[in-house]
Each structure stands twice: as structure tokens, then as C-alpha cells.
Amino acid sequence: MEEFLSSCRHAAQPGPQFHVVLGNESCDVDSMVSALAFAYFLSKLSDVLALPLLNIHQSDLLLRSDNLFLLRQTGLSPELLLFRDQLDLRALQRAGRLRLTLVDHNVLASADSDLEGAVVEVIDHHLLEREPSPSCPVTVETVGSCATLVTERIVQKAPQILDQQLAQLLYAAVVLDCVNMAPAAGKVTPKDSQYAAALETRFPALPPRGALFQALQNAKFDVSGLNTEQMLLKDMKAVSGSLNLAVSVLYITLEEFLQRAQLEAELSGFCQKFGYDLLLMMTISFTESKEPIRELAVFSHSSTCREQVSQYLEQARNPALNLCPISSPHPHVTAYQQGNVLASRKKVLPIVKDFLKEQEGDGRLGDVEEEEESGVPPTPMNSLVEGCPLDEGLPHISAQDLVEKVSKMADRGGN
Hints:
The protein is an alpha/beta fold.
């Protein structure tokens, strides 16, 4: 894999056609691994350059603690990876050099809609939102992990490319996304189990499933050293309609989060900085017996806005969140225990979108857009505009610049 990634960067120069494999804007473990593995797969089947591109700024990788852990565990240096702020997709498209495969999402973010003409294939496990097209094969199946579908393709078409490193990347993504393959978590499907078992059988030296999951969970939930803004940005999606809302997943108990010093002032500053009317904060933690605990908090300086959203969430039935109000030390924060522990953000977001559509009054789907940029500085889930507070001003790397940079990396020696 290291040799492949180095060659990808080294080949990024004038002349060849680029086949870019692009994960979604969350760039979680599943998205990262799916992009790396599928690009590697494509590169072994043809002579066309297949380039895995992480759909975040390079500086945002700091917030992906589980991604960094997995890269270290599999011996891959983050320096070998390419990030969204290091390759100009629009310039490649204008030059007629771009072919785009989407993994772990099936529609481009609205800010990338002008790249639609370059999309040639889709592999995803989310709800299908893409319009059918004879020129773009679409594989969408609601399994627990997109890496399961990538593994299936590799096993069926090119099983010989699987080695210990690639298998461990794929296996880790499936185990993490499927919550250690536990049926009670509501994520795993028979196909996920089938291909996890296939990898275990072929590569008996893979880390034990339980230990691997726990190590990745510990890394994912490690928010030590992050300030409030970074915690909110670590795993956030934005939704806009009549209001601009942010929905953040916090890997900490709600009680601990609400006790942070100057929290309400920090939440207010965050909303003002990024232009949000309301913050919806979903916490996840675990009991000693590893049972999930979900809590939810709603923040807005507008009592009307806060009360309307809170009431809508309380009354939601598809799914019912089973919210139980709990005490909050902050007057502008409404807090709940969430009885339905299976209702992750993926299931709460449609409720929020329905609320916004009702506020619009006409129910048109186009009125509500997820992760709409609208000039707001990016989050780790939406890192496509300038001015990211986590962006340390790294220089843009053109295709030509990559040649020299990669040559230097290659001189260090790769596996």
C-alpha cells in the first residue's frame, strides 16, 4: 500500500488521466479506508492512475484520532496521503483529465455539484439519492460499512491483491462501523458478517475482533486536549433551510460537557463565528458493561427556536427518540436523556430536515440542504472553502508540485 500511495503522488503530473476515488466529507475510518482500498483495487485492474483523495483539509486529520490510530497500526504514514486542499479537482476537470468515483456517499456536496459530469461510478451504503444514469454504475446497498462493499468487489474481482495490510484496513473499518458486529447495535448485516469472517479466515493474524474494536473506539472517543470548538467540529454535520443548524456528535457524557468552564459563552461564540442559529449536540458514552448511553442537548439564544426544535424532537415518531428532560445548568441549553440508543445522528438528521421543511411551509426537498456551505467556514464534515479555523495555512499543492514532493518521499524508502 505504501508503494502504491507513493506512486500515486509521483504520477500526479501533467499528462495522464486522473481517476480520483473520493470519500465523503466526514472522512471517518470507513470513508478513508474505502477510498484507499478501492483506488488500490482500480490501479491493479488497469493502467489508469487511480488516486485516493481524502475529502478534508490536511490539517483536519488531527481531529480524526481513530484514523490516525489505524494508519499507525497498519504502518502507513499520513504523509503519503493526499487531501482535498492538495489537489485541484476543478482544474483537472477543466483540462478534461478527471474521472471521479464516489465511495461512502452517492451524491456530491452542493459545493461540488459542478464536478458531477466527472462521476463515473458510485459505491455506497447510505440511502440512495442519486438519479440513475446509464453512464454511471451505482452500487448502493444499506450494509453497515461501505468497506464491506469494497471488500466484496475485491474478493470477487481481484482476491490476489489482498495482503495483511489491506485486509487489516478493511477489517478495521467493518468492525468499527458495525459496532464489533454486535446485532444489538443495529448496524451489522449478514453481508458485513460474511466478509468480516472471510477476512478473518484468510488472514488469521488479524487483531482479535473485540480488541481491535475497543482500541479504535478508545482512539475515536479520545477528546483529551480538544477545546470546545474542536470538540464540536470533530464530528459535525450542518443543515440549512429556514434556519442554519449544526448537529455535532460528542464523545463525552453530557454532564461532563455541560460542566465545561464558560460553556455557554463558547457555544454562543461558535454559533456567531460559523453562522448557526442552533446547535444540536448528541453525546455518546458507554457503561462499564459497554452498553451505549445517548444524550442530547439543544442550544440557541432564541428561546422560540430552541423550544420549537426541542418540541419537534420530543414528538418525533420516525423514529421515536424517547427523550427524557434532565436538568441543565445553562439557561439556553435544553438537555435530555435519549431512551432510543439506536437512534444515531444518521436517524436524527431526517427528523431535523423534516422540521426545517415544515418551517419553510411548502415541503419542497430543495429548500433543505445538508452541509450547505453558504460562505460558512468549513468543519471536518465540510472542508471545501477557505478560512477553516483548523487550517494552518498549508500551501496548495498543484499537480506539478507533487512530483518533487513525492520524489523526496520516495527517497526515504517505502514498503
